[in-house]
Design goal:
27% of the residues lie in helices and 21% in strands. The relative contact order is 0.14. This is Fpg/Nei family DNA glycosylase.
């Protein structure tokens, strides 16, 4: 699933190619992806793109339309969605049920993009709204971790609000927006922390280290992703991971010095996490499977 760095890079990529362009085509190919019905997606036709922004993991194309004023085409790529950009978009219409395409958008210079979704579990979500806050999942987003509002003090308040596993807090979009499974693994390696450490065990010094790691890991990932074509972002993300998705491979170390251990995994029903016992859990492997006793 694309997370804050990849979504920010996609916003930059689309912003540079669509701002000032007129929308000429909007075709919904997967009705299950469209979560709103008024205004209709066709209301975007003839409108001018003003900006492309981001809310957590949501992308937001801002369009000034002839009849409805400023509208927002917002979407969440979920686990299997992606953006395919074309300098020359095909003239063929997007046919429902015939391909992974969920939505096609075209512009007056012949360019455009498809939103696609692989697999059978369709979770990609597309909304056309006058205000992004009309989308409940956007309205309830937590603090942006790269914003000025995200201070060590604010993080301390979030950690103390209720006792839970720190990885769960990092992934909770209503608490901190944009971090998912991959970057939470990376952040916890850098802070040398077990993913199951209780949040109320954090003192001021430990909170400061976590805050610094969040900002550093995400900033470096955004910088690494910026300027890359949409087609290259998935590979760039995989190549930049220290522990996530690297089960059985040597751990590069929390500070870039190999520790001599290998990356371990804890599996759940529909996901998994990766960590290094030497760097994060005092050399003790965590018990696998969610019903097992988990080390703190």
């Amino acid at each position: 699933m694309p997370e804050l760095p990849e979504v920010e890079a996609l916003a930059q990529y689309l912003r540079g190619r669509t701002v000032g362009r007129t929308v000429t085509r909007v075709e919904v190919a997967a009705i299950s992806a469209l979560k709103t019905f008024r205004p209709a997606p066709t209301a975007l036709r003839g409108g001018t793109v003003l900006d492309v922004g981001r809310h957590g993991k949501w992308l937001d194309t801002v369009v000034e339309t002839p009849a409805d004023g400023v509208l927002h085409l917002v979407w969440h790529l979920s686990r299997a969605g992606w953006v395919r950009w074309y300098d020359a978009l095909t003239d063929r219409p997007a046919r429902p049920g015939k391909s992974p395409i969920a939505l096609r958008v075209g512009f007056d210079d012949g360019s455009g993009f498809d939103l696609t979704e692989a697999g059978t579990r369709k979770r990609l979500a597309v909304h056309v709204v006058a205000d992004p806050a009309e989308v409940p999942q956007i309205a309830t987003l937590g603090v942006e971790p790269l914003s000025d509002a995200f201070t060590p003090e604010r993080l301390g308040e979030l950690l103390a609000a209720r006792n839970q596993q720190v990885k769960g807090l990092l992934r909770d979009q209503g608490t901190i927006a944009g971090i998912g499974n991959a970057y939470s693994d990376e952040i916890l390696l850098v802070t040398r922390t077990s993913p199951f450490a209780p949040t109320r065990s954090y003192d001021d010094a430990r909170t400061q280290r976590l805050h610094e790691a969040i900002r550093t890991v995400l900033t470096e990932a955004v910088e690494a992703a910026s300027g890359k074509p949409a087609a290259d972002l998935k590979d760039a993300k995989r190549q930049g991971m220290r522990v996530h998705g690297r089960t059985g491979l040597p751990c590069p170390g929390w500070d870039g010095t190999p520790c001599g251990d290998t990356v371990h995994e804890v599996s759940f029903a529909d996901s998994s996490l990766q960590y290094c016992p030497t760097c994060q859990t005092g050399g003790k492997p965590l018990a696998d499977r969610r019903l097992s006793r988990l080390l703190r």
